[in-house]
Amino acid sequence: MENTPFFSVVMPAYNCEDTVGKTIESVLNQTVIDFELIIVNDGSTDNTQQVLERYHSKDSRVKFKTIENGGPGNARNKGIEITTGQYLLFVDSDDVMKEGTLEIYADHVKDENVDLTISSYNMNVLDGEELVDTRFVEAPNQMMETHEEFLNNVYPLMNKQLMYVAWNKLFKLDIIKKHGIEFPPYNSCEDRLFNIRYFNYVKNCKVVSDVLYDYSFDGKNSLTNKYFDNKFDTFVEFYRELLALTKKHEKGFSALFLKGVMSCIIPLHSESCPLTYREKREYIKTIMQHPDVIKASKDSLTDTKIRQVMKMLFKTKSVSVNYTASKIMYSVSMASPKIIEKFKRKF
């Protein structure tokens, strides 16, 4: 046990030779040294491998494994397989770990047997390389002592955008390994599904206001604007697993589900979408007629104007109306990532 690190940090890496060094440095510069950094090279075709080899040769805490390209979820799973620590964090290869992150997490859990710790984070919205907006996503300080209390707080925390991602959380590795919790092999929703499956076993949870992660994304190239064949199916899977976890706040969950469904329609207008115009309309028709979408459009909470509009759009079941609405949303997101991000905040 004396060789067991307190923290295991897992990082998927794909074609990130220009950014991964800065990310690694942010981990190595932590004031707490009792950690292992496991980087999974996800079949990179640039010089990522050489960068990882260089850092590994300098610091034994840096370990890496190279696999065939299979996406970030699969890479994280491969990293989890070789972890040996007590607590697990995730970091992406184009982000940075805030100074003092590990020390703050250690202070929060060292005297308490905490199953899950959730922190605040900064969200930086980019337009190409230009920073156009920064949002502080604040987590309210609170301690949930029971599984029931935790479930009662899932929606309020999810509504604050604190529950979807994996990198603002500290997980217990023994829970993950005991129950075989994995990321599904998807290009979207994989974080959400991993989290939901972990939430089933959370007996207590600590939420902290400390800002422990800086997340940056290019608004024009975000997942919202990318087409994936099974994207809608992943949101349905998430919605069903969420309701299986807890039906408290079901109307709120339905509203969030409709937001996710619209994010499946918006990419139909992107250049990455290979579908013909007729196929796009058939895709929207299939979504409009899906039983989960029909259920959610009936049940959805309408506590904001945007949610009222979203519910109305889906209740029409009109292919033409939703095709036009999604095209407008796509055009706005491409013209101004800042505006679309503000739109999301008001949801």
Topology of helices and strands:
Elements: E1 7-13, H1 20-28, E2 35-42, H2 48-58, E3 62-67, H3 72-81, E4 87-90, E5 96-97, H4 101-109, E6 116-127, E7 130-137, E8 142-144, H5 147-159, E9 169-172, H6 173-179, H7 190-199, E10 205-218, H8 231-245, H9 250-265, H10 277-288, H11 291-299, H12 305-316, H13 319-335, H14 337-345
Parallel strand pairs: 1-2, 1-4, 2-3, 6-10
Antiparallel strand pairs: 4-9, 5-10, 6-7, 6-9, 8-10
In the predicted model, the low-confidence regions spanning at least 5 consecutive residues are none
Spell the H/E element sequence.
EHEHEHEEHEEEHEHHEHHHHHHH
How much beta, percentage-wise? Answer: 15-25%
Q: What is the CATH top level name of the largest domain? A: Alpha Beta
Distance between the termini: 47 Å
Can you say what the CATH homologous superfamily of the largest domain is? Spore Coat Polysaccharide Biosynthesis Protein SpsA, Chain A
Determine the fraction of residues in helical runs and give it as a percent range.
40-55%
Structural class estimated from helices and strands:
alpha/beta
Question: How does the major sheet shape up?
Answer: 10 strands, mixed
How many structural units, i.e. domains? 2
Gyration radius over CA: 20 Å
How confident overall, as mean pLDDT?
92
State the CATH architecture of the largest domain.
Alpha-Beta Complex
Number of helices: 14
Number of strands: 10
Short recap of the structure:
The chain is an alpha/beta fold and 347 residues long. 46% of the residues lie in helices and 20% in strands. Helix 2 links the parallel strand 2 (35-42) and strand 3.
